[in-house]
Write a sequence for this structure.
């Protein structure tokens, strides 16, 4: 049976069945799967940045600068094993992996600073509650971890955003962003 409205004709397989689907489509379903490809590498890049910031802070504080207190490498390795999943969970709570907020401009970088600060407070609380090793965290190491993690995560996210868009307008999180092209047209 053919139903016509104006010049358009709609075909229905059975009589009495509406030509349009009455099933409600979820508007977020298509968008979620289209930006999921950007979340997984970003999750791994953030983990690498956290490891880099802790290792670099350790080398800067204890190898290059003088440190007179007792030092346990096992203590800082244990802190790193605790900190990496904790910081990634904190990043997720700050919606740094949510498709609607992904590559959200300045708000994303404010969330990076807030998440890194919360992760640092979590490290301090963990070292205060767990006294198995009997060592205190170096304040210089904490300051370096915070600065390096904010810098490395922010720069990595900006680099990832600019390479994913490739100098064109792209949509992430329902917003369109324009990355200016270079002079050579790339």
């Amino acid at each position: 049976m053919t139903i016509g409205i104006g010049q358009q004709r709609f075909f229905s397989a059975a009589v009495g069945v509406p030509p349009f689907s009455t099933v409600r489509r979820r508007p977020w379903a298509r968008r979620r799967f289209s930006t999921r490809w950007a979340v997984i590498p970003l999750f791994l890049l953030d983990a690498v940045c956290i490891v880099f910031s802790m290792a670099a802070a350790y080398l800067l504080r204890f190898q290059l600068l003088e440190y007179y207190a007792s030092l346990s490498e096992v203590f800082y390795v244990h802190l790193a094993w605790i900190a990496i999943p904790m910081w990634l969970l904190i990043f997720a709570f700050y919606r740094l992996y949510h498709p609607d907020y992904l590559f959200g401009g300045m708000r994303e970088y404010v969330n990076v600073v807030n998440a890194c600060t919360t992760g640092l407070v979590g490290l301090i609380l963990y070292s205060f509650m767990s006294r198995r090793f009997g060592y205190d965290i170096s304040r210089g190491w904490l300051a370096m971890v915070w600065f390096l993690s904010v810098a490395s995560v922010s720069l990595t996210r900006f680099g990832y955003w600019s390479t994913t868009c490739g100098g064109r307008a792209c949509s992430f999180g329902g917003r369109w962003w324009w990355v200016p092209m270079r002079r050579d047209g790339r």
